[in-house]
Specification:
Ornithine carbamoyltransferase; Rossmann fold; globular; 12 helices; alpha/beta; about 40% helix; about 15% strand
Length: about 325
């Protein structure tokens, strides 16, 4: 299976990936992580533009180092000031980048920005985070869970806090792989019902909303993220009372007895999770961070590598 020149010209919501393609990305990520030296020239001569409207640590470093490990290069474009579409139109921006780069990887404030870039670019556009979705994080999360549990089928993952971009993408890919994902949030912070309906209609697993943790056991994994969604400048202290019942702490861990705890970082200690838990043996957060590189590298390899640079059939056979 190859993603290149297939029905996946872009990755904007994450739903562009079929189950077979998702499984292939994860299989290749595992292979590249196990034997990185075998893939040092996979993207030789390729360049990607990494565009940032938001500050970043994991996204910026993992794409830059990841492309270097595959023999290519990543160009960092800081568009935080004055912002995309201000100095020149998004259409012209996309068309110009397409002249030089093999893909555009964009971390943006609004999903609509990605849609406009994809409309005018002649190279793939990859969503590295927007206000609605975070598919690259979800790929890394599923890779981490595959390593930890051997697969996701039958797992019960509880997501606690704010139903945000990370929640939506985790729901999609985890459910496609057979997991049951319950998002536990305040009623006004729940994932919208249309997304739940879409995921449930297109997945082997199941997703649902809840407002408390009652009756959720057994739970295999608890996942959390910041209580303030991207683009929201509300101080954490102002939302603490609203979200404190959803904090991941010792009491909740003892109640639900998960086998693992996940957090996509950055961690706000003492808010969405306590230091006692994020630093415990249950925590997979650094494994998730490491796997951003391998999940993204696999995706880029399958989208960008030329036939003479990457024998897809043989590669995937070795990854199986």
């Amino acid at each position: 299976m190859t993603l290149k020149n297939s029905t996946l010209p872009h990755l904007l919501t994450g739903a562009e990936l079929s189950l077979v393609q998702l499984e292939s990305v994860l299989a290749l990520a595992l292979a590249q992580k196990a034997k990185p030296a075998d893939y040092q020239q996979t993207l030789a001569g390729k360049s990607i533009a990494t565009v940032f409207e938001k500050p970043s640590l994991r996204t910026r470093v993992s794409f830059a180092v990841g492309m270097q490990k595959l023999g290519g290069q990543a160009l960092y474009l800081d568009e935080q000031t004055p912002g995309l579409g201000q100095r020149e139109s998004l259409a012209d921006y996309a068309k110009n980048l397409s002249c030089w780069c093999d893909a555009i990887v964009a971390r943006v404030l609004k999903h609509e920005t990605l849609q406009i870039l994809a409309e005018h670019a002649t190279v793939p556009v990859i969503n590295s985070l927007c206000d609605q979705f975070h598919p690259c994080q979800a790929l890394a999360d599923c890779l981490t869970l595959t390593e930890q549990f051997g697969g996701l089928n039958g797992l019960h993952i509880v997501y606690a806090g704010d139903g945000n971009n990370v929640t939506r993408s985790l729901m999609l890919y985890a459910a496609m792989l057979g997991a049951h994902v319950t998002s536990v949030t305040p009623p006004d912070a729940a994932v919208d019902s249309n997304w739940l309906d879409y995921v449930n209609a297109n997945s082997a697993g199941k997703v649902a909303n809840a407002n408390d943790f009652n009756g959720l056991a057994p739970v295999d994994v608890i996942y959390t993220d910041t209580w303030v969604s991207m683009g929201d400048n509300t101080p954490l202290e102002q939302v603490k009372a609203r979200f404190l019942p959803y904090q991941i702490n010792k009491q909740l861990i003892e109640s639900l007895s998960p086998q693992a705890v996940m957090h996509c970082q950055p961690v706000h200690r003492g808010y969405e999770i306590t230091s006692e838990i994020i630093d415990s043996d249950l925590s997979l957060c650094l494994q998730q961070a490491e796997n951003r590189l391998y999940a993204q590298n696999a995706l880029l390899s399958l989208m960008l590598a030329d036939a003479n640079e990457l024998n897809q059939t043989e590669l995937l056979r070795n990854a199986s």
